Structure formats: structure tokens, C-alpha cells
């Protein structure tokens, strides 16, 4: 008889949510965490970065104070205070999760877990053995490093060290214009750093819709960030007081020096020393291979979150966690559909999306209609002075169903929730256009973009223009 119905390895947003859901369903659950519950997300990812980014937003607003008739003598930005505030937010969140785990009677064991067989774990350093009927691997990922980008944790850093800085660097080169890269670019630029953003692919946020990349790139450049796309980093070397980066754009080779270099080129799975081989768990491209209910190839062993290499986002990890647990409890949860999961980037303007990009939809041979609506034609956006960006809704002409939502602008990371609901309800663009949105709100941009799919947006003259 195993000690537990479920053992979860890793207490990030995948693991702790899975453990709480399991407890709700009456499963006797143990959670093994080697560091702090909340994982990367609460401690060194989503939460501290968003707390800092909010300070950056406030700073940016202060710079525009005259526009709102507000004057001051001297603007003093203290990054150290922003950093302290960010850590205080983290502490509150982590304490909250600890309390929730306690209230739900999840047993939390501190230590590093390793699978010794399909249903047993050893936890170090105590050497405690745990037998469980089911195991969920939720060990997350680690920042990827490349051979020509040796991370030294001082001059050449990852997001982890960047989130520990007590002052904004005078200058920084950021390698990789994915979500982490563009968020730090905006953050440090708002605090006055000289920022160079290097991206290998032809556009920033290369996995987003090309329209979103275009609007964001223009905005980042207007903020004074040097954005270089199609730039291949060839070498990075740390030196006295800084680092130098050699990069090539086509035939042209250049060098840029900065106080620090931040490497944000994605993640690899955190599987080292986990004993997956002992249990016979299969990997795919280094990540734990799972099906649409997070089952691995080994009966009773599941994997969720960044370690699966699906969509490395906290809410995706949590959703996978709930699905895995419900499958374990025999509830037959719906299969996971990653196209129904929102993606959000918190620089300014923000970027948020769900589903297929227009190019992906066309690659799949779908006949699509896209509707766009700009923030500059929205009353609330004008009132706020936040007129940059647009919402784009992509629908399948055959069914009318929304298959893509792509937004750039103020507050779009909140607006994307509407696209999530539309996806779950399999709503058509017409239905989203019918839904009545309070006036004046930014959400009206979503309604009008949905109406624009059929050329029916009222506050922007472009009849059927986007249907071609
Ligand atoms: C700077 C930054 C900002 C981000 N911002 C966002 C955002 O705004 N929104 C968003 O959705 N996502 C964001 N992410 C991504 C998000 O943090 C991850 O997708 C999420 O944390 C993944 O959750 P997880 O549970 O899979 O793993 P993690 O959060 O990485 O948690 C894994 C846990 O497992 C523990 N662990 C590992 N191995 C063992 C072991 N052998 N035994 C015991 N414990 C172990 C670790 O200590 C860790 O606590 C951000 C990431 C970064 C780096």
C-alpha cells in the first residue's frame, strides 16, 4: 500500500496547483520542493518581474505628467525601492501559497526528489523514501545558455540575476527578443538604461503574429531602445566593468559594449538528477513527453509545466496540473488544447494573444478573415492617453469561429481573458461582436475588432477592407 495517492515533485504554479486540486478531490498528497513553494513564477519570474514592471509604468507616466497638467521639480527614480517592493510582493505571495497548502492538508516535504522507480521517490538530503500511487513531475525549466554565451552570473546574466540587481544598469545588451527580453528591455529603459536588444530572427516576439511584432518593435524603438533583428550573436566576453558582444547582421560584423549582458534565449527542461531513466520515462527534445492529459509513457507518472516544453507559462502549468490530477482522480477531464491558452507579455505597450497567428492559419490551409481595430479610435484609450496599438481578431470563414486573437496596447493582458472565454465557448467573431461591452472601456476595442471581421466596426471606417 503506497504512502500517498499522489506525490508532486516541484512546488511551482504547476505543482502547487496540482497538489491543491488533488487535496480538493480527496487524494492524500505530498509535495516535495527543494527551494521555496511558488517556484520560478512567484519567486524569480512572473510576480517579481511584474511588480518591477509596474514601477516602470508609473515612472513612464510621471515622465508624461505635463500632458495631464501635473508638474514637479525633480523626478527621482529609486530602483532599489522598486526592487524592495517587488521582493515584498513575492514574500506575500509565497506565504499565501504556503497557507493554502496547509489549509488543504497537503504535506509539504523540503528536499530534492529523485525517482527511484515508477512509483517511488527518494528525497535528499534526508534520504527519505516516499511511495505514491501516482507521481507528477513539475520541476520546471532552467534558463538556456549557448556555447557562445557563457553565463557568469555577474556581467553575463540570466533573468534570475537581473531580478536581483539593486540598481538598473547604465547600459545593457539583451540577447533574445522573446517575452523575457522585451520585458526587461522596457523595464531598464524606463529607468534610464541604454538598452540594446538583439534578436536572431527577423522580428521581436517572433512567435507572435507579425502585426503584433511590428507594432511593438516601433514602440520599443520610440522609447529609445536599440532594436536589432536578424542579429546573430557570435561571441560574448566579460571584462573589467562590463562585457562586449560581437554580433553579425548578414555580412556585417559589429561589437557592442555594455555594463551587463542579459541572456534570454528560452529554457531547457529541469530533468537533471531526477531519475527519469530509472523509471523509464521518455523524453522528447530534452523535455518530458506527455499526452493531452499530461500522462508520460509510464503508467502513473505524469508531467506538467515547463518540464514538458509545451508552452512555458505559469497558467499553462497550472492548467496542466489540474488536468493531470483530474485524470488521476478518474474525472475524465477534457484534453488540453494549447491553442486555447492565452499568452501575455507585460512590457508597454503590452502584447497578448491566443490561438493561431494569421500566417499559421494560412499555413494550415484555412480560409481566414481578420478584423483589426486601433486603440486610437477608442474613447477610453483617448481619455487615458493610451492610443498605441490594436486588437486583431482572426476567424475561420467556413465556421465564423475565432481562431486567433492578437492584441498590442494598454491593458491587453487583461483583455485577452475575453478571447479565452470565446475559445472555450467556441464563439464566432459575430457573437463576440454582438456581446455588449460597457462604454467607455478598452474592451470595446475587442468588440469592434470582432465586428471588423465582417466589415461592421462602427467607429473606424474600413468596410470589408480586412476580409481580403
Ligand atoms: C523573468 C520571467 C518572467 C516570467 N513571467 C511570466 C509571466 O508573466 N506569466 C507567465 O505565465 N509566465 C511567466 N514566466 C514563466 C513562468 O515562470 C513559468 O512558466 C512557470 O514558473 C512554470 O511553472 P512550473 O510549475 O512548471 O515550474 P517552476 O515554476 O519552475 O517550478 C518548479 C519547482 O520545482 C522545484 N524543483 C525542481 N527540481 C526539483 C526536485 N528534484 N525536487 C524538488 N523540487 C524540485 C524548483 O525548486 C521549483 O520550485 C516567466 C519566467 C521568467 C523567467
Look at the structure and give the mean pLDDT: 96
Instruction: Compute the separation of the termini in Å.
Output: 64 Å
Percent helix range: 25-40%
Structural class: alpha/beta
What is the count of DSSP helices, taking H or I runs of 4+ residues? 14
Secondary structure tally: strands: 24
The shape, in one word, is: globular
How is the topology of this model organized?
Layout: E1 4-9, H1 15-24, E2 29-33, H2 39-44, H3 46-63, H4 79-103, E3 107-110, E4 112-117, E5 120-124, E6 128-137, E7 141-143, E8 156-157, H5 159-162, E9 171-175, H6 179-190, E10 194-199, H7 210-222, E11 226-229, E12 232-239, E13 242-249, E14 252-258, E15 260-263, E16 267-269, H8 276-279, E17 283-284, E18 287-288, E19 301-303, H9 314-328, E20 343-345, E21 350-355, H10 358-363, E22 368-374, H11 379-384, E23 389-396, E24 402-409, H12 412-424, H13 429-434, H14 444-452
Helix pairs in contact: 1-9, 3-4, 3-6
The structure holds flavin-adenine dinucleotide (FAD).
Flavin-adenine dinucleotide binds at residues 9-15, 32-35, 39-41, 45-46, 49-50, 112-113, 138-140, 159, 180, 270, 274, 305-306, 312-315, 317, 346.
